[in-house]
Amino acid sequence: MTSTVIMINLFGAVALLMFGLAQVKDGVTRAFGARLRTGLAAGTKRGWRSFLSGFVATVALQSSTATALMVSSFVERGMIKPRMAQIALLGANIGTAVTAWIVSTGIEWLSPLLILIGIVLLRAASTARRGLGTALVGIGLMLLSLHLLGLATEPLRTSPALRAFIGLLDGAWPVALIFAAVLAFLSSSSLAIVVLILSLGSTGILSPGLMVVLVLGANLGGAVPPFMASLGAGPAARRVTLGNLIVRGCGCLIVLPMAGTIADGLSGLPLSAAKLPVDIHLLFNVLLGLAAWPLSRRLSAIMQHLVPDAPAGESGPRYLDAQEFSTPAIALTSATREVLGIGDLIERMLLLSLEAFRLHKAERLQPLPALEQVVDGLQQAVKVYLSRLAGQGLDDEGKRRSIMIIDYAINLEHIGDLIEKGLMAQVGRKIVEGMRLSDAGNNELLQLFEMTIENLRLAQTVFVTRDPGLARRMMEIKVEVRNMERRSAELHFQRLRDGQAESLQTSSLHLDMLRDLKRINAHITSVAHPIINASGLLRESRLRKSASSVAT
Q1: Tell me: the pLDDT tens digits for 246-269?
Q2: In this predicted model, what pLDDT tens digit does every residue of 110-163 receive, in sequence order?
Q3: Residue 76 and residue 54: Cα distance in Å, rounded?
Q4: Which stretch of DSSP H or E encloses residue 61?
Q5: Whose CA is closest to 43, among 93, 88, 5, 86?
Q6: What are the CA-CA distances from residue 126 to residues 121, 123, 130, 133 (Å)?
Q7: I need a labelling partner for 360 at 20 to 30 A (CA). Which of 180, 255, 268, 456 fits?
Q8: At CA 235, angle to CA 229 and CA 241, rounded to 5?
């Protein structure tokens, strides 16, 4: 019974650590998601900036997997060069190691304070503050889990069974590496496993050499989840995650035979024995980054050879197959996948427009007309495909789903038009004429831009899941966008009354961009209407609004 209680406490502490990590990721994504993604895309143009962007994103999200998937998606959309993506992931690996090092510095006493502040922020009206509150609660739970891990592993000092198991691993280092890699893969977190190794190491039952091997395994296993998650993506995305896995794998194979020598060398340094696993973790990733960075160009070339481009052209539909008409459910799923691809193209157009606006670089706008033509062609192909499918006979649910897919595709095509004919022209005019908005006006437009991109990503999720809760959240964001647009216009007119020169010179530009971003958000939010209508939430909302207006 004592052994059972010890294992429950141990696994419960690990589960709390993983839950805390998930809360940090969710909170940071809600609070800073659009800015983080946009900053990551904009910061990966040169080597050092790519490295720092990957590092910062991982420290913020507490997940190198999330960073790897974001970077690989940017590569797939042509927004990041493959070599810069590989360098960004080297920074992400070090970001995870630095996080492990920080949480091991004995700051567990901050846990109650962080949780308290986080709970207070969760009651705020602002989405960003609620997201920050969630992140602080997550950090507090992570620190609390470290304390619980220490308590759970304390009785293991005298456990004969554990000592026997550790002895077996210590005599078979390749098995120990695989064991730690499997744990990291199953938990989808190398950080969680390194912290577990840290707690076990504090009991004195792990030899320094075995610590090195287990940390190597955690690093190897942590590179597997992003690779597995990218298997359904395009070749460009798979190259990035496979390259990261190969880099870590090669590093582990090189270091494994020298684990004993490295452990002896570290024992001679003024390092804390209690923190040795996180020191090993950080040292390994720093040295791996220094060794792999100069080889990043060659690595990208090797990945191009290992994962060649698909033979089909990217401008045509990829998933529409008339042979699937005999199984309407599969045909509708294929049409859904195709429209999701259109949404990805629209996101790329928005991100390029945002980069051009923020960086004042006209070359970012050059791909937009070609992308808009691809969007038009794919939207037309989806409509034709679903029209032919309807002729084969669909049940009522299939018809409703088909209409929803077509409506979303049409709205995405309208967004493409607004970007090409509206935002592209306005941003291009700003660049060509050297126009400079006021700092306040510029920040207002950037904020609305970022919210629009985040709203599109939410719409993609709502389109697939048809989740009423997420659909209702989209309607709330629509109200936030409308209020933000109105507030920005009012502040702009106030700046005009105050006689600010920048506002006087850019008045039409500011108002036109506000109008187009508001219209784009309206098209994005339309995906939520049929879902809310079907669940009755839209009618209830209107009735409540009507009732309140009568009462007043």
Answers
A1: 999 999 999 999 988 888 888 777
A2: 888 989 998 998 888 777 788 888 888 988 888 888 778 777 777 766 667 777
A3: 17
A4: helix 47-61
A5: 88
A6: 9, 9, 6, 11
A7: 456
A8: 45
